[in-house]
């Protein structure tokens, strides 16, 4: 295979996301939402999730020939059995419930894996117009500025992102972790949670997630000195749903100590 220019791909996908933001804002202004439930009233999909996934996959297909896709919303994108070759993992709207109810705090996420190795990740906070992007070969960027590593704070020195169900149903020691942090925050978008940790505004987050929820963050966060694992400390499987913990090195250790 010829050498892949990740810097050039990063630029192209960045532009695809900028255009995508304009598309989404336009759709939000003009189109009434058609909302359906997937597994229940907390798990929604709109026509914009589906249309946006289609658009993104079409745009990304032109970048690397013969790449495969894993996306949340289309029946056509069959679940992958392995991660051979170039694979794009797409979450067209992360935080659909926020998108519907708040019109804020939702993200678009794209990740590129080649033979299972994370190469580029992109998380766009749509309403704040910020994209964190990059990978091991091209540095990590907040739009056009290099993003510096966040300070390695202890759990007791920062805010902790947790999911609502974890807190309310006392799953995975969430209340205990909340008590040992400065406080819990429930944002409702895995992508926005990852961004806040990468920007040093939170020390950690954990939630039960699907591959498209953590594919981009799993590439970006470790490059900034953060740790991303399963809740037992093991490495993530990119083809499986799992409880994902992302945190500063110190908070990661604090949390594993608390819950074991
Ligand atoms: P989504 O909005 O793309 O579905 C809070 O709900 C966070 O968890 C969001 O990032 C959401 O992504 C993700 N999530 C993963 N599985 C979910 C599920 N079954 N129901 C609702 N949200 C889910
Ligand atoms: Ca969903
Ligand atoms: Ca998601
Ligand atoms: Ca989604």
TrEMBL record:
PROSITE patterns: IMP_1. Its cofactor is Mg(2+). InterPro entries: Inositol_monoP_metal-BS, Inositol_monophosphatase-like. The keyword Transcription does not apply. Keywords: Hydrolase, Magnesium, Metal-binding. GO terms for molecular function: inositol monophosphate 1-phosphatase activity; metal ion binding. The keyword Membrane does not apply. GO terms for biological process: inositol metabolic process; signal transduction. It comes from the Bacteria. CDD domains: IMPase_like. Mg(2+) 2 binds at residue 93. Mg(2+) 1 binds at residues 72, 91, 94, 213. This is Fructose-1 6-bisphosphatase. It comes from Pediococcus argentinicus. The lineage of its organism: Bacteria, Bacillati, Bacillota, Bacilli, Lactobacillales.
């Amino acid at each position: 295979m010829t050498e892949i220019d990740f810097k050039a791909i990063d630029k192209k996908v960045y532009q695809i996301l900028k255009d995508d933001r304009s598309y989404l804002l336009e759709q939000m202004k003009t189109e009434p939402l058609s909302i359906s439930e997937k597994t229940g009233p907390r798990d929604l999909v709109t026509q914009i999730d589906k249309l946006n996934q289609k658009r993104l996959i079409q745009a990304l297909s032109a970048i690397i020939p013969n790449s495969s896709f894993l996306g949340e919303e289309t029946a056509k994108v069959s679940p992958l059995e392995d991660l051979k070759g170039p694979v794009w993992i797409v979450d067209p709207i992360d935080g659909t419930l926020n998108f519907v109810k708040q019109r804020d705090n939702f993200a678009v996420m794209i990740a590129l894996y080649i033979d299972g190795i994370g190469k580029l990740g992109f998380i766009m906070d749509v309403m704040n117009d910020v994209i964190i992007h990059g990978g091991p070969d091209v540095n990590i960027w907040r739009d056009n500025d290099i993003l510096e590593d966040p300070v390695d704070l202890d759990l007791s020195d920062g805010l902790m992102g947790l999911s609502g169900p974890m807190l309310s149903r006392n799953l995975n020691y969430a209340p205990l972790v909340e008590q040992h942090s400065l406080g819990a925050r429930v944002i409702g978008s895995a992508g926005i949670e990852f961004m806040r940790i990468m920007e040093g505004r939170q020390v950690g987050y954990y939630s039960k997630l699907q591959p498209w929820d953590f594919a981009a963050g799993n590439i970006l966060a470790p490059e900034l000195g953060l740790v991303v694992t399963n809740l037992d400390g093991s490495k993530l499987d990119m083809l499986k749903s799992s409880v994902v913990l992302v945190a500063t090195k110190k908070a990661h250790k604090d949390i594993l100590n608390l819950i074991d």
